[in-house]
Amino acid sequence: xxxxxxxxxxxxxxxxxxxxxxxxxxxxxxxxxFSILGPSGCGxxxxxxxxxxxxxxxxxxxxxxxxDMGGRGPARRPTALIFxxxxxxxxxxNWENVxxxxxxxxxxxxxxxxxxxxxxxxxxxxxxxxxxxxxLSGGQRQRxxxxxxxxxxxxxLLLDEPLSALDLKLRQYMRAELKAIQRKTGVTFxxxxxxxxxxxxxxxxxxxxxxxxVEQVGTTDEIYDRPATPFVATFVGENxxxxxxxxxxxxxxxxxxxxxxxxxxxxxxxxxxxQRAMVFVRPxxxxxxxxxxxxxxxxxxxxxxxxxxxxxxxxxxxxxxxxIVHEPNLDRQAALEGEVRLGFQADDAVAMRAGxxxxx
Amino acid sequence: xxxxxxxxxxxxxxxFVALVCFWVLIMIVLPQAFMIEQSLWTMQRDSxxxxxxxxxxxxxxxxxxxxxxxxxESAKTALQAKIDALQAGISxxxxxxxxxxxxxxxxxxxxxxxxxxxxxVKSIVYALAVTVLALLVCYPLAFTIAKLATPQRAAxxxxxxxxPYAINELLxxxxxxxxxxxxxxxxxxxEALGLVSFQDKTWVPFLEYSGSVxxxxxxxYVLFMVFPIYNTVETLDKNQLEAAEDLGGSIWRTHxxxxxxxxxxxxxxxxxxxxxxxxxxxSVPQIMTRGKSGDWFSQLIYRQFFETQSWNLGAAYAFxxxxxxxxxxxxxxxxxxxxxxxxxx
Lengths: 360, 345
Ligand SMILES: Nc1ncnc2c1ncn2[C@@H]1O[C@H](COP(=O)(O)OP(=O)(O)O)[C@@H](O)[C@H]1O
Ligand SMILES: [Mg+2]
Description:
The structure holds two protein chains of two kinds.
Chain A: E1 6-15, E2 18-28, E3 33-37, H1 44-52, E4 59-64, E5 67-68, E6 79-82, H2 94-104, H3 109-122, H4 138-151, E7 156-160, H5 168-185, E8 188-193, H6 196-202, E9 205-210, E10 213-219, H7 220-225, H8 230-235, E11 240-249, E12 253-258, E13 261-267, E14 276-281, E15 287-288, E16 296-307, E17 311-318, E18 321-328, E19 339-344, E20 349-353
Chain B: H1 2-39, E1 41-44, H2 49-69, H3 73-98, E2 101-104, H4 107-110, H5 114-148, H6 151-162, H7 169-180, H8 185-192, H9 210-234, H10 238-246, H11 251-279, H12 283-289, H13 297-306, H14 311-336, H15 340-344
Antiparallel strand pairs in B: 1-2
Helix pairs in contact in B: 1-14, 2-3, 5-9, 5-11, 7-9, 7-12, 9-11, 9-12, 10-11, 11-14, 13-14
The complex binds adenosine-5'-diphosphate (ADP) and magnesium ion (MG).
Magnesium ion (MG) binds at residues 44-45, 160 of chain A.
Domain ABC transmembrane type-1 (chain B): 120-332
Family (chain B): Belongs to the binding-protein-dependent transport system permease family. CysTW subfamily.
Pfam families (chain B): BPD_transp_1
């Protein structure tokens, strides 16, 4: 099996008067694990269905391995789709499920059966071949679906939130499993999810979507450390937000006047004085001052402390808005009370042009 | 039962149970039991009995006359004894004439003439053909409504299927009669095209073919085939169809491997209903053939009851048909691998 690259070239999808996907261009590389991340209803499934051929884009082209897919149905594209609800055939045994695609290709029964058994072994389901999907657990059904999709030797595997129905433990296990299968087969994976943790742990690269628009495409580190928009900053990981107006700015840094006092931050969007701005600080990059020499200082009222295990979540109110600080759990924190001094470095804060936040 | 009592109280439960028993008894057990009983006996009628009784009365009169003329006391008593015996014999014969003997046995079932048996088999074969044709027509229809049409269009189509059923079955069949008649709609159209001529009577005699009965039967019972299939196909997850398509399954393979296995209970129910309704249909063959292309078995049964007055034979014919239907049901269940529970759904 070989992965192929997938190219969305100025693709638009409209349903009647409603535009589900605004003009989008994406280049997904051969053999990579690519995630499309976004809240429910933002158009992720629609993109997947354009790639798999169930719908034709209203405008633009889809190319796989350089070939234009226009007018080709799902059966004639080198893709296989794993549905959100898996869509296994409940009245067939597991091996027949896996062999369905081979049956459609006219392979004889013995070859089909051998191939199906091999694939079920690949996903760790030896001994379950003759059972029906209904007799399996959620995680096992998942694997049958993966084996069934791999049976047709796709160059691109499309996965529509396949882990969302599983419980937490199994989900984490399946993340590793999926990643391992992707490495082993070299197939291009396009993985859809609304779970940013899932996207960050599994992907090579991520596209973050909001309301039919891809807001940022990048490696997991880029998405997390260099969010391009306020939405990405708040949807991926946690972020504290301070709003204000740019007082002065140069190429590297900007000083923003906020109701809580002036704040210095990286000037990512090349903001000029007088513009509205939002400043984002990750909770783990902010800290209690305790004598440190920090670029930005705030005073917050301590609200509560949540133990998360390896770190603690400290909740403050700064002015009239919440502010969160993560501190490593070193078992030597003095009890906090009343007004507390907080701060962060200018390099750990990013100023952006004001825009939509993750409203969830 | 205890659950019922707990949730509805004693009185209501009693009423429920009584109603169910009543329904089972009146609607199911009694009519069938009556029919089976009827079918299992014949009247022993001695046609010479009337003559024998007449002769006995004549003998009696003679003896009474002899008795009046007899002198000898011992001869008198002997005659009296003879008269008494004869009188007892007469009343016995009279009894037998008004209340003839029932003779139980399978004679009604074995008495079917060769002609009637041929009609019996023919009716079953025709009903099977109607069922198969109806299935071929209705499966694509049901699938289209359930999976391909938009919800609004599906509702319209279903409504369109149901509306004709607001009209009496007889009228619906008569409509087909008018369409297929010698000078009916189709032949008129053919004449307009110059293909047939009413004057030379070169019309196509549709009504003389069994096909016309098939058409009317399919039309009359389409709903009973469409709805069960529609109901099961409706519950099929659309993603399964897409998954099959995505894996390269052709339309045929997808239907054969995915849709039909899912719709089996509906198909079985549809076939059973259509078969039973067509094999037992009286009005459709009666109206459509106007007696021109031979009897259907249902018409034979009707005649046994209401024309020849042989209720016992009629009951045996009718019950034979019930047996055929039962066999058909069992066959369908076996063929489609569905249990009685799936069918009840
Ligand atoms: N076939 C369709 N017809 C009309 N609207 C659709 C159709 N498919 C999706 N949509 C709309 O497009 C938007 C994006 O849907 P979808 O791609 O399924 O979102 P996601 O997978 O991100 O949750 C939704 O508002 C949805 O209602
Ligand atoms: Mg979706």
